[in-house]
Amino acid sequence: MWLMSYITKNSITPPNAVKGDVQGNDGSSVRSSGEHKNLPCCAPYGVFSIPPSGERAVVLPLDDGEVSVGVISSADNLSEGEIMLRSSGGASIVLKNDGTVLINGRVFE
Fold it and tell me: How far apart are CA 102 and CA 84, in angstroms?
């Protein structure tokens, strides 16, 4: 939200983000109305991932190219304020609001 607000305030014409399907095995290409190749991925510091082929990704134009800002995800039974890390193989870690941690469904206090 803050990113789009910042871009809108600091540019003459706001850039248009596009969404499309991740293509290939390295997660760096997205096909929408056109093909966007060799995209760097934008993520919070310390979080690294390669989106699997077929996921819906969002591409944002920058001054010097384009960047993938992530994939469109669903909440999957999370409550407001909870966080889930999940791999395409099914492994998951959930940080719950009550302080518990679920690792592959197993509860840790």
Answer: 9
